[in-house]
Automatic annotation (TrEMBL):
CDD domains: NDUFA9_like_SDR_a. Residues 364-382 have a biased composition (Low complexity). GO terms for molecular function: protein-containing complex binding. Residues 335-388 are annotated as: Disordered. Residues 17-224 form the NAD-dependent epimerase/dehydratase domain. It comes from the Bacteria. It comes from Methylobacterium frigidaeris. This is NAD-dependent epimerase/dehydratase domain-containing protein.
Length: 388
């Protein structure tokens, strides 16, 4: 039995799902997955006009944007009204003005859960791996507090904790690829931190299955990809895909915090106009002092992406498809001169006319076939030879 069994008895086309934060990077994948299943979707965002790009993902009238701000409880209640299921994807990586971790990720998550409870709607909430109320990171603490408040209002809620989420438009691989295009040296905070990147499409599929009622409520699921790599290994992979030769310089924690402080001051002096690729906060440096991988307890209890029946997608299957734009020649870059291109391809036969070759001119149609190949002219009235 799952926490949402009563939802599964109704056809998706007659159900309304309110998705808070549905226009973000992960949100667009979630909206697509729900639209394919036939759900009616209400995308609750601060700027509905900026969410119109989602409408082509579904049928006419299937996806509608509404205004909602997690700092405004009344707008949350209106967005959740008449909803059959509520999904909360709202999250930020760094604080800015009134957009604080505490207000959005802790208090805001609780407000959404209470609104869902008020209309009797089950809830799916997305948190993050590393959520810990005792963490030195304000980000991690706010995520843990948000989870607790969600369970207080909806004990049957399904909560997901993904690791670093990647995919077209992500702020991870794209960020380092952008830095490599600008800088000859990449100073790296938390270079030895282990991560388990998970594809946004896989996370969206897990959320859609929770909405369908396939997952047990009242549990926290930890989502990670098939590989565990250090941050430095991931950056080096990014350099390989973008065909950039850069020096990766791991920074000790004190130097990393100093770098973050300089970036914070620069961001303040530029009134927040510092490019996102250059922004770094001391809280992020603190977060990078810990690994971001699925726990052994989650594996043992089946609270993982594999445990719910999804085969995780490897970074090699997706990342090259959207990082090519960071290469010097873009999609026309061949990698000529790189070790990979210098090696002889496995499928190339050592002897062009040997047994392993696919080149057999004698079997092809044309003037060189049959009697012409034997030295005589073609038969009268026959222009081409015949395939054997």
């Amino acid at each position: 039995m799952t926490g949402f069994d009563h939802v599964g008895l109704t056809r998706p086309a007659s159900q309304l799902v309110t998705v808070f934060g549905g226009s973000g990077f992960l949100g667009r994948h979630v909206v697509r997955a729900l639209a394919k299943r036939g759900y009616r979707i209400r995308v609750a965002v601060r700027r509905p006009d900026l969410a119109q790009f989602l409408q082509p993902l579904g049928r006419v009238g299937q996806i509608v944007g509404v205004q909602a701000n997690l700092r405004n409880p009344a707008s949350i209640v209106r967005a959740a009204e008449h909803a059959d299921i509520v999904v909360n994807l709202v999250g930020i990586l760094q604080e800015s003005g009134s957009q604080s971790f505490q207000r959005l990720q802790a208090e805001g998550a609780g407000e959404v859960a209470r609104a869902a409870a008020a209309v009797g709607a089950p809830m799916v909430h997305v948190s993050a791996l590393g959520a810990d109320e005792h963490s030195a990171s304000a980000y991690a603490r706010s995520k843990a507090i948000g989870e607790a408040r969600v369970f207080e209002a909806r004990p049957d809620a399904v909560i997901f904790r993904p690791s670093v989420v990647f995919g077209p438009g992500d702020s991870f691989f794209n960020r380092f690829a952008g830095l490599a295009r600008m800088l000859p040296v990449l100073p790296l905070a938390g270079a030895e931190a282990r991560m388990q990147p998970v594809f946004a499409g896989d996370v969206a599929e897990a959320i859609a299955r929770a909405v369908e009622g396939q997952l047990q409520g009242g549990r926290v699921y930890e989502l990670g990809g098939p590989e565990i790599l250090t941050l430095q290994q991931l950056v080096e992979y990014t350099l390989k895909v973008t065909m950039r030769s850069r020096v990766v310089l791991p920074l000790p924690a004190p130097a990393a915090r100093l770098q973050a402080r300089v970036m914070e001051i620069a961001d303040t002096l530029t009134l927040g106009l510092l490019p996102d690729t250059l922004k770094l906060t001391r809280d992020q440096v603190t977060l990078l002092q810990s690994d971001n991988v699925v726990s052994e307890a989650a594996k043992a209890e089946g609270r993982t992406i594999e445990g719910i029946g999804i085969a995780p997608t490897a970074i090699e299957a997706v990342v090259p498809g959207y990082l090519w734009r960071f290469r010097k020649a873009g999609q026309f870059a061949t990698g000529r001169g790189t070790p990979d291109m210098a090696a002889t391809p496995d499928l190339m036969a050592p002897d062009p006319m040997g047994q392993g070759s696919q080149h057999h001119p004698g079997d092809a149609s044309g003037p060189a076939v049959g009697s012409l190949a034997a030295g005589a002219g073609p038969a009268p009235g026959v222009r081409w030879g015949k395939r054997k």
